[in-house]
Amino acid sequence: MTTFSATSPTISEASYGSVRHTSVSTEHILVSDQDKIETAHWEEAIDQILKFKSDTDFLDQNDVPSDAAYQAAIDFAVDHKDLETRAPSWIVPSGSGRIVFEWHVGDSKFLLEFVEEGFAKYIELHRGKVVNRGFMHRNPISRKLELKYSS
Amino acid sequence: MCNSETSVIAIDEQLLRRIDPVWCRMPKHQGKPLATSFFTPKPADIDGLSVSRASITPYEIACKTAKGKPWALAQFAVKTVLDLNMTVLPKPIHGGDQGHAIIPELNHTDLTSSIIEIENFILEMADAIAESSKIVWQPSSLPCPEG
Questions:
Q1: What pLDDT is recorded for position B24?
Q2: Which residues of chain B lie closer than 8 angstroms to A60, CB-CB?
């Protein structure tokens, strides 16, 4: 199992099952090549999370994220707002008290599902196939979410 | 209540899935694929992904959440589902949506089974549906520019 810091840009070639492709760290995923000014989009993302949280009628009961999932999502957004990182393409309450950030970058999609405070599930799809899975947890020392890939 | 019109789903029908309408108004989303997460089963989709048949259910009914809130509607073809080797079963709601149907392969029980292969399958199928879907209706309070 490999651990990547969410703050260290890393690219590595890796083979996952029958699919071989360029594997990237979360930080690389989030860095925008073309649009470096993402702060506004992060602000929109945070506003949207807060709207979900405040407008309880907007979501059906089963879809309402837990307070812990909200907090994890907001923490992540605040951490990345000022780092010239790509804001998520979509934010979706995924049910069971969870909330998903979803990035679409080229042929790849990256899903980060906040499960509870300091913990998120990570899934990467490339051309429609799941090629990476893992989880992120908050390092108690650095206070940053760190990614671990799992098979 | 099933009748002859609702009991058979034709291959050329279109299906509707309710999605969160908020983000579609943002210019950065215009013309982009919809979120895969819109099409992964939620807890309410316990026996399959809940959809409505566009030929039977008016948008005004299909868009309503359990709390009666209007959401946006994404549309995709029955053929897309069949081409993915999945099925669409009619499941009219008594006293409610007569065009309600489910895609049983995409159910929340399997998604939470902790079997990685099954979860991957559901995610990949949801992603394929997301790629073929487009927004066809949204609440008037949230104008969505043409993409």
A1: 58
A2: 44, 65-67
